[in-house]
Amino acid sequence: MNRVSVGWIHEVFSSIQGEGIFCGQRHVFVRFAGCNLSCSYCDTPGARLQNPSACRVVPGADSCSCLSLHNPVDADGLFEHCRNLVGRAVCLTGGEPLMQAEFCAALARRFRQEGHVIHLETNGTLAEALPSLNGLVDVIAMDMKIPSTSGCELWQTHELFLTRALETKAFVFVKAIVDARTEESEILQCADIIASKNRRLPLVIQPVNGKKSVPGEHLLRLQEAALRLVDDVRVIPQCHKVLELP
Ligand code: SF4
Q1: Contact 71, 53 (CB under 8 A)
Q2: Which atom of ligand 1 is nearest to the CA of 95?
Q3: In a designed cystine with 5, which of 16, 106, 169, 215 is the match (CB 3.0 to 4.6 A)?
């Protein structure tokens, strides 16, 4: 089979996983370039550029020693530059990694050969890309975009994506970014989609970072609403930002 083994990467670095249920683990982050959405709260706008000329690799805690690789990079070459980064888990993130699904699969395969655990962070919209990752990803962290927060209404797209994600046999959890405007009906819609597949799948409610803080009582109300339909609902902020880490 002809597989695409080159792609566009925005940056690679090692840090703590700051989001979701694996928060606090040390991960190697491979941030793919390009995204098919434009969420109003996007905190990685630089990664939305589809064909950046260079990929930054930060080998360790000392960001002064970073390397610059020419894009597109090939999977084997990128792996060699990541070999000494700290973290058994590799997080394929973006941007949107599934826009480069074949390259994503090539990288996942290469890292798995060396015993890494593969996490995929995705905006949960490109279901048609998932079959190329069957058996190559251990964890899928999928977003469900909340219309009042993101500016996108994608419920049917997310439902189809969740169906396909569960078929990959990866462990799946869902993340919903909320703010003070998020309504109970929105988190209930999200919880209803999850419950229609498996009410035990974790749902992480993540308050949007930055100026628009979310009152704690509002987070509790949203969590209480979601718990009517889903068993495991957690409220987790972006911990790497609290610690001022990348
Ligand atoms: S899906 Fe992620 S990378 Fe893309 S615009 Fe939304 S927040 Fe930014």
Answers
A1: yes
A2: 3
A3: 106
Domain count, the chain: 1
Residue numbers of the domain that contains 104? 6-174
**Each residue's pLDDT tens digit, 136-180:** 999 999 999 999 999 999 999 999 999 999 999 999 999 999 999
Residues with a CB atom less than 6 Å from ligand 1: 35, 37-39, 42, 44, 47-48, 94-96, 123
Confidence of residue 1 (pLDDT cuts 50, 70, 90): very low
Pocket test for ligand 1, best of 10, 37, 100, 126 (most atoms within 8 A of CB): 37
Q: Whose Cα sits closest to atom 1 in ligand 1?
A: 123
47 CA to centre of ligand 1 in angstroms: 9
Average pLDDT over residues 103-119: 97
Best of 8, 29, 36, 48 to mutate for ligand 1, by most ligand atoms within 8 A of CB? Answer: 48
CATH number of the domain where residue 22 is located = 3.20.20.70
Residue 66 resides in a domain: yes
Spacing, Cα 229 to ligand 1 middle (Å): 27
Q: What's the mean pLDDT in 48-57?
A: 95
Tell me whether residue 212 is in a domain. no
Vertex 123, ends 30 and 172: CA angle to 5°?
85
Largest CA distance in the chain: 53
- Specify the pLDDT at position 59: 76
In a domain? residue 182: no
- Is residue 51 in a domain? yes
For the record, the structure tokens of 129 come out as 């890309």
Whole-prediction pTM: 0.95
